[in-house]
Write a structure and sequence with these properties.
It contains 9 helices and no strands. The chain has one domain (28-253): Vanadium-containing Chloroperoxidase, domain 1. Helix content is 79%, strand content 0%. InterPro entries: PAP2/HPO (IPR000326), PAP2/HPO_sf (IPR036938). The chain crosses the membrane at residues 27-46, 82-107, 113-132, 185-207, 213-234.
C-alpha cells in the first residue's frame, strides 16, 4: 500500500498555527485568546505585586490618593452614602447572591457550560483572592478617623476582583449572544463602568489603595479567562465528539 508522503516541519507549523486561530476548532481561537489574556493579566498583576512588595513609587502615590479621597469623603456625605451602598452590595454575600441569581437563570436556559464557568469563576475567584491576601499581608490604609474599619488585608481588593469576575462574565455571555459590533462592545463598556465604580468606592471609603484595585482587576481578568476558556473548550470537545460519533454511525450505515 502506498504511504502518505511525510509532512515537512513548515507545513506542520502552519497547520498548528491555523488550528490555533480557527474560530471553530476545539483548541482554536477561543483558547488562544484565553491564554493570551491570562498571560497579559498575570504579567500586570506580577508587576503590581512586585512594585508593592518593593515599595516602588506607586506606593507613595497610593498614600497620596488615599489621603485626598479620605478628606473628600469626610466632607461630602451624599457621595459617601451612595458609595457605601455600592460597596455593601458587592460584598462577598452580595456577590454570591448576584452570582446565584445569574446561575439559576443560566441553568433554566440549559446553558450548562456557562453555568459551570460561573460556578468556577465567582466562588473560586473569592477563594483565590483570600489566598493572595494572606500571601502579601499588606495593611489597609490607616487614618486617625476612618470611615470603615476592617481587620483583613488590603492587597488585592476582594470587592474589585469579585466585581471584575461577575460583570466580566456577564459581559462575555451577553457579547457571545449579541448581534452586531455595538451589541458585542456595549456589555464590556457597562462591565468596565461597574467595576470602576466598585473599585472607586473601596478607595473612596479608605479601605484600599489604588494599586490594590488595579491588581485585583488584573487578577479577576486572568481568573475569568481560565474559567471561561476551560468551559468553552469542554463544550467544543463535547460537540466534536458527538459530531465524530454521528459521522461514524453514518459511515457504518452506508
Amino acid at each position: 500500500m502506498p504511504h502518505d508522503p511525510p509532512v515537512s516541519f513548515p507545513a506542520r507549523l502552519h497547520r498548528f498555527a491555523a488550528a490555533r486561530f480557527s474560530p471553530e476548532g476545539e483548541y482554536g481561537l477561543h483558547l488562544t485568546a484565553g491564554v493570551l489574556l491570562l498571560l497579559l493579566a498575570t504579567a500586570v498583576f506580577a508587576r503590581m505585586a512586585g512594585a508593592v512588595v518593593a515599595g516602588a513609587p506607586i506606593t507613595q502615590l497610593d498614600v497620596e490618593v488615599a489621603n485626598w479621597l479620605h478628606a473628600h469623603a469626610r466632607a461630602n456625605a451624599l457621595p459617601r452614602q451612595v458609595l457605601t451602598a455600592i460597596t455593601h452590595v458587592h460584598s462577598t454575600p452580595g456577590i454570591l447572591v448576584l452570582a446565584a441569581v445569574a446561575g439559576a437563570w443560566l441553568y433554566r436556559r440549559r446553558q450548562r457550560y456557562w453555568t459551570v464557568a460561573l460556578a468556577a469563576s465567582v466562588p473560586g475567584g473569592l477563594v483565590l483572592n483570600v489566598l493572595l491576601k494572606r500571601s502579601f499581608e499588606r495593611a489597609r490604609p490607616h487614618f486617625a478617623e476612618p470611615l470603615l474599619e476592617l481587620s483583613t488585608y488590603s492587597f488585592p481588593s476582594g470587592h474589585t476582583m469579585a466585581a471584575t469576575v461577575l460583570y466580566g462574565f456577564i459581559a462575555c455571555y451577553a457579547s457571545r449572544h449579541a448581534r452586531g459590533w455595538a451589541g458585542r462592545v456595549l456589555p464590556f463598556v457597562l462591565a468596565l463602568a461597574m467595576v470602576a465604580t466598585v473599585a472607586f468606592s473601596r478607595m473612596y471609603l479608605g479601605v484600599h489603595y489604588l494599586s490594590d484595585v488595579l491588581a485585583a482587576a488584573a487578577e479577576g481578568c486572568g481568573w475569568l479567562a481560565i474559567c471561561i476558556t476551560g468551559a468553552a473548550t469542554l463544550e467544543r470537545r463535547s460537540r466534536a465528539r458527538a459530531r465524530r460519533a454521528g459521522e461514524a454511525v453514518a459511515t457504518q450505515d452506508i
